[in-house]
Write a structure and sequence with these properties.
- This protein is an alpha+beta fold.
- The chain is 25% helix and 19% strand.
- The chain has a five-stranded mixed sheet.
- The longest helix has 24 residues, at 16-39.
- The protein is globular.
- 31% of the residues are buried.
Length: 272
């Protein structure tokens, strides 16, 4: 059985006069609301609560200690070793100004001499072996200081047995050296002499670009600065004073000094 549809009533008619008045009232009300909204001040933005001041730890008056340099040298090393640890050692020594010759990863004579020079500057045992104390000296960057303040000078430090290439008070290069032993010896005239390297300020006045024969043996490429006393190359450069008065360096170091003009004639040499 079908449901019967409910009849829809026709929309009621609104008098025209009532519609016009309603429209005017609606427009007026909207205007008043708009003006009222414009005249009401916007609420002030919320103010964040003041944060508590940071509290610092009380100062001790001393700067924080600098972190040790990462040298990469973690193993004991000695002459005859090779590899990346030796390369790291040579790079650090060179960075600190110690003459090592070539950075080649081979722990040879020049690297051993550079290690001895570092040990001298740090005031530790002079054995040419990289152990805990030497690694600490590497990390801390132990270097010698110059006594001169201007000009290009070569300093010979008798206490530390080091030869320093100095420019305006800054040590540019440090080389292991061995000077007068303090022992007595017989001079070429038969007299008894003491093997000493006199302190003072001198100038290079003569040089020989070869082995130079002498009364006590040949000297390699000597640079004379005080009579018969010279900086020269020699096959043996021990960690302690051992010469009759000259400043010995390795043959390779002497070549380097020549090649770079660090001991040209008239160069100032200060022995202290």
């Amino acid at each position: 059985m079908e449901h019967m549809a409910t009849p829809v009533s026709p929309p009621a008619r609104i008098p025209a006069s009532f519609s016009a008045r309603s429209a005017l009232i609606a427009v007026a009300t909207a205007g008043v609301l708009a003006v009222g909204t414009a005249l009401v001040p916007a609420p002030a933005p919320a103010t964040a609560a003041p944060s508590a001041p940071a509290v610092s730890a009380p100062s001790t008056g001393a700067p924080a200690p600098a972190a040790p340099a990462e040298t990469g040298v973690t193993e004991d090393l000695r002459s005859g070793d090779s590899g990346s640890q030796v390369t790291a050692l040579q790079e650090r020594l060179s960075e600190l100004g110690y003459w090592v010759g070539a950075v080649d990863g081979e722990f040879g004579l020049h690297t051993e001499h550079a290690v001895i020079a570092l040990q001298k500057a740090a005031g530790i045992g002079r054995d040419g072996i990289v152990g805990p104390n030497t690694r600490e000296a590497l990390d801390e960057g132990a270097v010698p200081s110059a006594t001169t303040s201007e000009g290009s000078v070569v300093e010979i430090d008798l206490d530390n047995q080091l030869l320093l290439v100095v420019s305006d008070g800054e040590v540019q290069s440090t080389i292991h050296t061995s000077t007068g032993s303090g022992d007595t010896y017989e001079g070429d005239d038969g007299s008894e002499r003491i093997a000493t390297t006199p302190t003072g300020t001198y100038q290079v006045f003569r040089e020989v670009d070869s082995w130079d024969p002498g009364p006590y043996g040949a000297l390699y490429k000597p640079k004379y600065f005080n009579g018969g006393i010279a900086v020269h190359g020699y096959p043996s450069v021990p960690a302690q004073p051992a010469s009759k008065g000259c400043a010995r360096v390795s043959l390779g170091a002497m070549d380097w000094l020549w090649d770079n003009g660090h001991l040209d004639v008239h160069t100032t040499v200060v022995v202290h």
